[in-house]
Amino acid sequence: MICSLKSKKKIDLIFEKGKSVKSKHLQVKYYDFKDSEIKFGVSVPKKLFSSAVKRNLIKRRLREQVKHSGFLDVVRPGISFFVVYCTKDILPSNEIKQGLEILAKKL
Question: I want to staple 102 with a disulfide (CB 3.0 to 4.6 A). Which of 23, 28, 34, 83 is the partner?
Answer without folding.
Answer: 23
